[in-house]
C-alpha cells in the first residue's frame, strides 16, 4: 500500500472517515463525548491492582472513554484472579496491554505465558486487547483453539522508537497489520522533526480500517491532539503529568480542557506557536479559551519546530491557518512569507504569520514591539503616577536590550521609536553592533554588561532564552548589576508569546 496523500490537499477533506471509527465506539464511554467520535483512552501504569482500580475511577471522572490496563506495570500479578477483578470492577471499557520490553514495555518473562494472559483477558470480557505485530501469528494460534468473543476487538500494534518511516513504508506496515487479522490497526513512530507527523496524518486519513496512529516525543504532540481531524480511532491521555506510557503523551485534562479535544473535527482550523523551546508558552491557554468562548472551530498548539521553512512548506494546507512565532525563528520566518508588514521588515523579524484562506499565501507582521513597549510604558507610568501623559515615559531613558535576535530587534525598534537611548548587549558583539547601527544605538558585549552602569534608573529588557526552560532560575546579569535598573522586562512574557 502506498499513499499519495498530501497534507496540503487533504487536510480538510472527509476521505471516508466515518467508516474508520466503529459506530459503537462513539456511543460507549463518557457522557461528555462531543461532536467527534475519536475516543480518549487513559493508560493505567500503577504497580498494584488496588491502585489501578482507584485510577479507573479517576479516569472516568475526568472524562475518559476507556482505560488501557498496562499489566506489565504490575509488580505483583496473579493473572487468573487479577484480570477478572480488573474487568469486572471497571466502570469503563477496558483495553488490556501486556507490553514486553522488546517493544518498549516492562514485561521480560516467558512469551507463551504473556500471550496466554491476553487470551484470558479476552475470554473474561475485555473490550480490546493489544497484541504486537511481531507475535500476532503466535497469538492467533492461541485463539484458534477457542473462539474469539465478538465483543472483544483485536488491536495489532507496531512501535518504532527510532524514527518515522516513509509514507510508502508506513503504508506497507499498515497493510501487514490489517492482513494479520486486526480489527484496529495501531502504529506509533518517533518524531525526529515535526514534519514527520505529516506522514502519519497521510496514512491515517487514507486508512480503510479503524486506525490508531501517533508520533511519539514532543515534536509529535500534534499527532495526538489532531487525530480527530484526520480520522484516528483514539488517542491516549495520561491521568497525571509525568506518568505517561509513551513519550509526548498529554494529560487527559489538557486534551479535554486545554485543547477542546471533543470539538476537533475535519474542518477544524489549526493554529499554534512555533518555537524551540516552546513548551513553556501559555499561548494555547489564551487562544483555546478564546476560541471556545466565541464558538470558533479552531485549535491552538505548541509546535516544537527545528526548521521553520520546512515546517511551513510541509503544513501548507489552508487548514493550518496561522502561527505565532517565537525564539529562535522570528528572523528566519520573515524570509518564508509571501508578504511582510513594512514595520516587520524594518525590524527584521516577525512574530505573527497568517495564511490566506483562498490562496494559501503567508502574511507576516510583528506585534512584539507593541505589546512589550506598551507593557513597559504602563509599568513606568504606574511607578511615576503620570497616567494620561502624551509623552512616553521611555523618552530619554537608557534602554538596554539583551539579545540581538528577533525579539531584541523588536524591542530596540520600539524603544527607539519612543525616544529612548538604546544599548544592545549580546554574547556576540558583532551582532550587537549590527543591530545598534541599524536602530541608532550603542553596542556592548554580554561580558561587559555586569560592569555597565553609567546612570541609575535604566530599563533592562531580556530577549534571550534565559528564563525559559530549562534555564528558569538563571539571570542574564548579576543581582548587583540589577540595582542600576528601575525596571526589568523579560521577553519570555511578551503578550504575543504567552
Automatic annotation (TrEMBL):
Residues forming coiled coils: none
Domain Shikimate dehydrogenase substrate binding N-terminal: 273-353
GO MF: 3-dehydroquinate dehydratase activity; shikimate 3-dehydrogenase (NADP+) activity
Domain Quinate/shikimate 5-dehydrogenase/glutamyl-tRNA reductase, first and last residues per copy: 392-465
One protein family per Pfam: DHquinase_I
GO biological process: chorismate biosynthetic process; shikimate metabolic process
Record's protein name: Dehydroquinate dehydratase, putative
Species the sequence originates in: Actinidia rufa
